[in-house]
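Quick note —
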Amino acid sequence: MAYTNYSVDSAFIEAYKANVIQLAQQTFAKIRPYVSEEAGTGEAFNHERLAATDAIEKTAQRHPTDLIDDVWDRRVTTPRTFTHALTIEHEDKVQMLADPESAYTTNQAMAMARQYDDLIIEAATGDALDGDGTPVVFPAGQVVGDGLSPISFDMMTAVQEKFLSNEIDMDIPKICLVGPTQVRKLLQLTEQTSADYVSTQALQKLSAYGIVPNWMGFTWIMTNRLLIPAVGELSCLAFTSKALSLVINQDIFTRVGERADLSYMIQIFSQFTAGCSRIIDEEIVHIHVADTL
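Predicted structure written out below.
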């Protein structure tokens, strides 16, 4: 009896790789497009930071030059590696590898994309590392709310006040991450649903998005990945695109091959190596809300 070669066709492999990467990076990663990205190469990536300085008045002619002391510090990002592996029988390989809408493709792509979002959310209010490896806690002054009150119009104006107090220009694009309950609450706010406060054209998109586009100057993103400080609470986030840095040593890559230890089933594997750090504390606001109406 002739031997049948069940090796995985290279065309199917390339199709699968392309589909996973496209879905993970372009379709399902909600937060990644809104943070800065750096290419990393080593075990750690250093972000050099220069503190603000002030001009000095010249009070006399031929006055010796007053030198300003520049103050530098550093934030460090340590990349981590994440993997995702699935197995499939040979008879299903054509559908699995070639169809961009297959369950295997979307499952793996979405899992990898969610991990990128989790990295970003974790870094936003978690401890950052300075150049000496010392943890830098999230500043208490950058927190709005105490977890006892739901999101409100007044709370969001307090968030904008934080940005203004930190000299963050109103024109700088800002992102706000909220959960499903916050979207529902915002739908109940007159300030977000009445033509007395927002334009009629913007209100026409309300039913599709749940929140008026650019309401209060934010790009609104609903996510179920936000941190839960305590039962009945949620850590919503507002930030600029410069506040967080995603360092990518190796972006998503895939491998497809046979597993001799599993009766030569096909294994589909994805991996990436990346880390995220809070770079500018003043450009992130932790909105600590009660996850209720």
